[in-house]
Every structure is written in structure tokens, then in C-alpha cells.
Amino acid sequence: MQSQWHMYSSRRCSSRYQNTSTKKSRFAAELTVIIAVGIAIMDWGNPGVLASIGICSAIFGFYLGRFQQGSAMNALKIAGNVARQRSVRHQMCLLVRKDLKMGKGKQAAQCAHATLGAYRRAVRLYPEAVWAWETFGQAKIAVQVENEQEMMEVKAQAEAAGICTYVVEDAGRTQVEPGSRTVMAVGPAEKTLVDSITRHLKLL
User: Listed GO molecular functions (predicted)?
Assistant: First the structure.
């Protein structure tokens, strides 16, 4: 299963960057041809014109070769990174404040808000982690924290480790005061990283 995802991820990323490289290369080639033809029309018999065409062609060939080589290397690096991300299990951890004494329905709603908020943020900031998380079923666990202070301490640790976080601030329509920080999502990120920060917390 993992090897299949490796192949799929590598092909998709390589194809995407190859298409970009092809478009840019085609544009550069067309521009060079237009310049060369324009110079030739002005005075084809002039030795200086012929020399200019030769120089333009040489410069174009040199930079085109370097561009294609660099694009291929970048595509391979990105494809390899995505494949590595997809081979590692990712998860999201939801931290629910115990001191607010929210009902089960309220907790479920707040966890949903946290999940969606973290997902939207991670799509922008950590897209590779989102891909990996979706690949392995979007795993989530819910744990409890004693109060807001403990939640913020975990938040600081997660952000220091480069993990996405999202804190829900409730509107205060039911059960809690307006602006209460009810649930925090940690991740999606590599399971080992999330566990290293949240394993001491009890399951909800």
C-alpha cells in the first residue's frame, strides 16, 4: 500500500513540475525564434546579424539546459519529500478543557470546530501533512486538559515543534462564557511528533 502511494505521489509531482517546465521552455524558445527572425529580416546578409543570431541561440541553449536540469532535480526532491510524508502515519489530537464542564454534545461540536479550523490552516501551511493525514484515514484522538493554562502550554510546545494548532474561541451562546477557549487541535502531523507532546494527557 505504501509503495503504491510512493509511486503515485512521485508521478503526480514529477508530472506537475514537468508540465510547468515545458510551458516555460516553450515560451523561451518562441521568444528566441521571434528575436532571431526579426534580426534576420532587418539585414540577413550582414555578418554582424548572423553573429548576433548565433550568440542568441548559444545563450538560449545554455540557459534552457540549466533550467530543465534544475527543474528536474527540484521535481525529484519534492516528489521524494511527499512520498516520505505519505509513508508516515499522521494524526490530529483534540484537547478538551475539563474545567468548563461542557456537555457531551457541546464537546462534540467544539471538537468539530477545532478539526475544521486546523484542517483549513494546515491546507495553507502544511499541505504535505494534510495529504499524508488523508491517506491514512484522517486519524483523530480526543484528550482532556485541566484548564486553559495547560492547553496553552501544549500549544507552545506544538508550535515550537513546527506542528499546526488551532484554538476554538466559543461565541458563548450556550454553556460557556463568550470568548472561552474550549478545544484546541494539534496537527495533523506525524503521529510520533503529536504523541511526544500529548501522550501524558488522559483520553476524553
Answer: peptidyl-tRNA hydrolase activity
Residue 29 pLDDT exceeds 60: no
d(CA 52, CA 12): 41
pLDDT at 11 over 50: no
Are 82 and 97 contacting, i.e. CB atoms less than 8 angstroms apart?
Answer: no
- Please answer whether residues 186 and 153 qualify as being in contact, where contact means their C-beta atoms are separated by less than 8 angstroms: no
CA within 13 Å, CB half, 131: 19
Q: What are phi and psi of 78, to 5 degrees?
A: -65, -45
DSSP state of 179: T
CB-based contact 188:91 (threshold 8 Å): yes
What residue type is 134 in one-letter code?
Answer: E
User: Of the candidates 189, 176, 57, which has an alpha carbon nearest to the alpha carbon of residue 119?
Assistant: 189
Give the pLDDT confidence of 121-168 residue by residue, as tens digits: 999 999 999 999 998 899 999 999 999 999 999 999 999 999 999 999
Whether the ω angle into residue 188 lies within 30 degrees of 0, i.e. cis, is: yes
- The answer to whether the pTM exceeds 0.90 is no
Closest CA to 75 of 4, 5, 9, 1: 9
Q: Cα–Cα–Cα angle for 111, 180, 127, nearest 5°?
A: 45
Extents of the domains making up the chain? 1-85, 89-203
Q: Is 165 helix (H, G, I), strand (E, B) or coil?
A: strand
Report the topology of domain 89-203.
Bit1 (3.40.1490)
